[in-house]
Amino acid sequence: xxxxxxxxxxxxxxxxxxxxxxxxxxxxxxxxxxxxxxxxxxxxxxxxxxxxxxxxxxxxxxxxxxxxxxxxxxxxxxxxxxxxxxxxxxxxxxxxxxxxxxxxxxxxxxxxxxxxxxxxxxxxxxxxxxxxxxxxxxxxxxxxxxxxxxxxxxxxxxxxxxxxxxxxxxxxxxxxxxxxxxxxxxxxxxxxxxxxxxxxxxxxxxxxxxxxxxxxxxxxxxxxxxxxxxxxxxxxxxxxxxxxxxxxxxxxxxxxxxxxxxxxxxxxxxxxxxxxxxxxxxxxxxxxxxxxxxxxxxxxxxxxxxxxxxxxxxxxxxxxxxxxxxxxxxxxxxxxxxxxxxx
Amino acid sequence: xxxxxxxxxxxxxxxxxxxxxxxxxxxxxxxxxxxxxxxxxxxxxxxxxxxxxxxxxxxxxxxxxxxxxxxxxxxxxxxxxxxxxxxxxxxxxxxxxxxxxxxxxxxxxxxxxx
Lengths: 343, 114
Description:
By secondary structure, chain A is an all-beta fold. Chain A is built from one helix and 36 strands. In chain A, the strands form five sheets. Chain A has a twelve-stranded parallel beta sheet, with no helix packed on it. Chain A has an eleven-stranded parallel beta sheet with strand order 3-6-9-12-16-19-22-25-28-31-36, with no helix packed on it.
């Protein structure tokens, strides 16, 4: 296991061996680091031309572990400060995982300002899997298409405390686990995914569906609020593998006819969810919908005039997930107390 | 942070000199004027695709360029219908059986425009 360093402002030999001699382009790090290595990255790398960063050389291994790329503050300490890739409106993707590259760990990395019309912050070269990759506290915003995902889904990976905002759409993924992530204020869909898990996330203020769910997804303990189209829309293919939606708060889908949960006649199991102020209906097209009951009572709750949106503020960037519930009957129970980054 | 993109509906009311931080103000069609007559606006980290801003507006780290969208790619967005072989077609595949073209597949892409 070796340590490496990236700092776009570094002088020295630029061989990645220390902060003084750090690589100035993170591409060098992705090309040289191997399983078990850790590369610390600080500062901002601004694209001078439309050349995407490719992660296409080495994979982590079960024997040696992930290849880790971790953002640091100016002092080189890991405190949640992100290393920034500013694509500078160039017509290219930001970070591109090649198909077959596995076990890459990206922590505290921000990608922004991918230009053109179909460029993504974090994406893959084509369909297929890049298994066991981990994204922690990564942020992707102001990109012309997806924050995370795209023509090639990022799949079989873990997103933990990641955030996507002000993109054309937030996350697009297959077989992926999104845990404590936020997707908000994107022009289109917040999260489009299949065969995956969403746990403890916030999806709000997007210009289309909050969650567009295809094929056997599990959505747990998530706040879906104030998206322009449906809160959750199920789409074809779940009949043999039911979607499972538990403990979610689905509120304020207030455009004409917008629905909290559009089951689209798919096989669906729900329980312990709370619905409020969804104009079209709270749940619709629910011909194959089973609501979990306890002692004969439906565990879902609807329209109890609880105005808590499930997060603190939509306007000042201080949104969090930490409001304590007040009593056992309060729908606020339908989420976990945890702070989620939104920028 | 606020989302006032074209899919969300109307723009907010803003006063002269307002600072808008992390707003999504994306418009459907290129060169759509927004906040006409409002002076001294500052846009910071905003998504301003297809927006024409007041002349004295200041942009800081914003996404501001113009995209001509294809009706076929965005059929629900209220664009004017286009013919199949529209200007956004970037590639055409034809399926031929026994010398006869039985199907044509158009690959389209939105266009960045000046």
